Amino acid sequence: MSARYVLGVNIGFHDSSAALVRDGALCALVEQERVSRRKHAVGQPPAEAVAACLAMAGISAREVDTVAIGWDFRDIPLGRNRRFTTEGLRAMLFPDDEDLTMPAVRWVPHHVAHAASAAYSCDCDEAAVLVLDGAGETQSTSFGRYADGEIEILREWPVEQSLGFYYNAAAEWAGLGYWGTGKLMGLAAYGRPGPGAPVRPVAGGYELVRGTPTAEVPSRRAATLGPLMAYYPAVAESLKPEFGKLFPYAPRTGEEPIAYADFAATIQQGLEETVLSLAADLRRRVDTPVLALAGGVAMNCTMIGVLVRSGLFDRVYVPPVPTDAGVSLGAALVAARECGEFTPTRIDHAYWGQPITTEAGEAAAARAGMVHRRLGDDELARSVAGELARGRIVGWARGRAEIGQRALGARSLLADPRSRRNLERLNVLKGREMWRPVAPSILAEHVSDLIEGPVGEPSRFMLAAASLRPDARLRVPAVTHVDGSARPQTVHRDTNPGYWALIEQFRQLTGVPAVVNTSFNLAGDPIVNSAADAVDTFVRAKEIDLLVLGDAVVARSEADLPS
């Protein structure tokens, strides 16, 4: 029997992506922004991501049996008069193959796709499922049960009650922009929460507190630019009076964002209390020790840390790409299961993207006039660890790229966590606000040396905040946030042996089992994907001292290469 390929796609308004599944097992997942180099790929179909997935699997579009779409948008136009007809989908996903007969199409409701991305990849037979995002077709929050291979949605909340839009709107109010939710979360650590967050738990759920009635949510047919553009302004506008009570200045009045720290802390606390209440209600309804989360709100690592430490569930699982980019995976798994018995991939690492080879790295370095030296695995780990200990900043790009918004040791900027100055250096070179934190990558075997309390599985993907031990805060000041927390990534030898070996060498040199890890990109850019992307960033950011591409160490001159 020949292999059966399902291509999952997100063709929503933002974060388009493609995931290729072979007999239920994940082969590749690529986010469109990584190949198009346009942050969040707003309005872009995932054609380049589709091509990249097919190329990695070594198949053509004609070998795809089913295309699964992580939305049910059959009645909604996309853009100007462009509908999801068979030919429209073919042109959107396979623009260079006009003779292709479009594979069968499976439309998967957005929250079902989100739920499947977590439930089918967590390697368990039963789980409670919680989806938290901006907007699906008509819903914004869902919870349900996964058992016997089936996902049952037990309850939904409408878009007017969107926790994702609540947080997006708060980020805009603080002058951080719609996409500034991560910044708002980081800013919250600097403030003191107070009463009055316009979201609160209520019996049987939660509610947003709005100063004005929400304008009528447009019908699905009227949402010509997708639900984000159609729904968000009405929700955000209704929250502004409540935001004004917390911080009575209109956004963009010249205030520095740090002035909104108490506002951010209050918004964050409201989210945490609400989600904790939802999780408690879900646990009462679904008596299982496993919680699987997805949706863009699951990127809030402070909230996920609270859930992990709450003890409501023995196990909390979040896939590495819980955002809309992850619905390509969820949709593919839903369609694959409908084709018959299958064993989905247990996702315990994030390295499903496109690879960087040493040869490609050397060629890219040569084109840019850079010098390079190829090293064996052991020598590379020792050499780079020594350079980090000397205070140098290293761009690290090896193997297959991570999926998701966190750099996890495949496309990372690395530094010594013992120097607080390295936080400032990284924020300057990346063009970020000086109050934003960076994260530690910690050897899994030594996580308790630095972190107190549980970190759970989300720490594999840098998705749960935790408290640093008081003594560790003095040892690793570069990764210690103002409230004593950190966003750790636990590094496991079996899933990224090269990165693990580097940190182990650094531990042997310094006694510290961690390095600073932040995403390899500059402000406004997606994380680097190819060797050419990495070299381009290295050329532009003079503060990066060395670049590792595969097994090659790249420098601007022979004198800069490790001795």
From TrEMBL:
The record places domain Carbamoyltransferase C-terminal at 386-555
Q: Where are the transmembrane segments?
A: none
Q: Which Gene3D superfamilies match?
A: 3.30.420.40, Carbamoyltransferase, C-terminal domain (3.90.870.20)
- Please give the superkingdom of this protein's source: Bacteria
A GO molecular-function term, please? Answer: transferase activity
Q: Keyword Transferase on this protein?
A: yes
Keywords attached to this entry? Transferase
Q: Which residues form the Carbamoyltransferase domain?
A: 6-69, 101-333
Keyword Transferase attributed: yes
* Family annotation (InterPro entries): ATPase_NBD (IPR043129), Carbam_trans_C (IPR031730), Carbam_trans_C_sf (IPR038152), Carbtransf_dom (IPR003696), NodU/CmcH_Carbamoyltrnsfr (IPR051338)
Question: Of which family is this protein a member?
Answer: Belongs to the NodU/CmcH family.
**Protein's recorded name:** Carbamoyltransferase
The organism encoding this protein is: Micromonospora lupini str. Lupac 08
